[in-house]
Amino acid sequence: MAQVKIKVDVSKVRSAIQSGIPLVLTTYTFPREVEEYVRDIVKVFLTELNQTQMIDSLLYCVTELANNAKKANTKRVYFEEKGLDLTKPDDYAKGMENFKTETMENLPHYLELQKNKGLYIKIILQAKNNKIKLELRNKSELSVYEYKRIHDKITRAQQYNSVEEGMAALLDDTEGAGLGLVMMILMLRNIGLAEDNFQVLSENGETITRLILPFSRESKETITVISLNFVNLIKGLPEFPENINAVNRLINDPDSQMSDIARKISNDVSLTGELLKMVNSAAFALSTPCSSVADAVKFAGIRGIRNLLFSIGSMKSLMLENDEARKKMWDHSYRVAFYSNSLARSHFSKAEDKEFVEDAYVCGLLHDMGKIIFLSAHPDTMNKMQEVCRERGVSTDLFERLIAGVNHGEIGALIAEKWNFPDTMVHVIRCHHEPELAPESKWKISALVNFSDLLAHYGEGTVDFSQFDTEVLRLFNITTPEQLEQLNDKLSQAFRNSSRS
Predict the structure, then answer these.
(1) pLDDT in tens, 62-105
(2) Which residue segments constitute the domains of the chain, with CATH numbers given?
């Protein structure tokens, strides 16, 4: 029977890159057609990121690690069927005597067993902060013996200068995975892998092998140059509205009174209307409507008013045209803002979380500002950027993928700094796809917006449970797909109700 080739959806790969969302493929048996499909995804993924120099090495890694994961899962069902305990050295040695021969002779049987037991293999690819993360997860925790064996070979591999040297030292008839691991590390060393870029760990019933591979130095320099050029060349993007700047200056003046701030806002009809509208929205959950600016200022407080002003100012500056792409992006931003605010209020009620809760809505609203700015760029700016790209030998398509995708957080943060946004907003905009890179004091709110962003995508069916960061999930006490589904249903319904009100 001819092998059916699975076609890669290039648009889905591109969307994942632009959204900072990991690509996840789950399999139980890793048959040949799935292996070829994964290899094709890796090729498309690296080509989209202009990292084709990694293709051969990463393809080897994916194949080697996936086969090792499949073998580890097979080992579990084989040992169980033989009545052996692989955590015991004597049983382990006895089981491995015939493991390779017997499983190869009856492979379909053992693959079916591991599938029935839910022993999956997950392959995860993600572009983050000019780095590529590759993870292999399999539903089998390492035994102490296996863990020591793997880490011994990783440590020893650092001593070898070539694959040939590793082969001579580590050729092993019982488990060829050791040789493959050495070859992989030696190959990766040639594309910039350092010792701390490679991890093997066991947690929550899984074995996780993680590779963090840096973009080529030339690529990183190119991304930095074109990002800075883009920010410097932006035309048609207004400065932050002066009427809002004037209120902010008053807020920052230690001698000003709340009544002065309220009076300044009241003198601007448009600003008054926007402020009352936002204060009375479902996000602020007032028991009775607020009808005066003075009351709004007292209720929201200085920090709340500042956040509202930044929200209003950003929307005024960036909603210049009502095109479909920008409208879709703002709709997503409103949803993320609502989710961020709701989650902050329901999960963080301690006194020390007060500022965190107050900042949640505006940070969620403006998290994708970099993408919106890219769509808002004046045609003259884009023409000049094409000249910059030609000078550096970068295709326009690649430029758009890098700016709107990989680097949109940095672009948004640079503009936020230009507009004198508070540090919290700048950090969230920059790190909402990678909260682990935020300063420790900003991690929680960056994780909140990251979770809200992914949850909005989850509701659209473009993200599944496995694509959420486990540490971020723990922040919201989510441990199962069912819990995530329940939370999504609850927030989605609340958002729909708020939109109708």
Answers:
(1) 998 898 889 889 999 999 999 999 888 889 889 988 998 999 89
(2) 10-215 (3.30.565.10), 239-319 (no CATH), 323-501 (1.10.3210.10)
Q: What is the pLDDT of residues 235-287, one digit of tens each?
A: 555 566 677 777 778 877 888 888 888 888 777 776 777 777 767 766 566 66
Q: How many Cα atoms are found within 13 Å in the side-chain-facing hemisphere of 461?
A: 0
- Tell me which DSSP letter residue 390 carries: H
CA pair distance 91, 99, nearest whole angstrom: 12
**Nearest-angstrom CA–CA distance, 18 and 10:** 12
Going by their DSSP bridges, the two strands 121-128 and 131-138 should be labelled as antiparallel
Is-contact 30 72, C-beta < 8 A?
A: no
Task: Kindly report the pTM of this predicted structure.
Answer: 0.70
DSSP string, 139-192: S-PPPHHHHHHHHHHHHHHTT-SSHHHHHHHH--SS-THHHHHHHHHHHHHTTT
Query: In this structure, how many other beta carbons lie within 10 angstroms of the beta carbon of residue 93?
Result: 12
Tally of CA atoms within 13 A in the half-sphere of 120 that contains its CB: 13
Residues in Cβ contact with 348 at an 8 Å cutoff, skipping those fewer than 6 apart: 356, 357, 444
Question: CA–CA separation, 46 vs 13, rounded Å?
Answer: 10
Strand partners, 127: 132
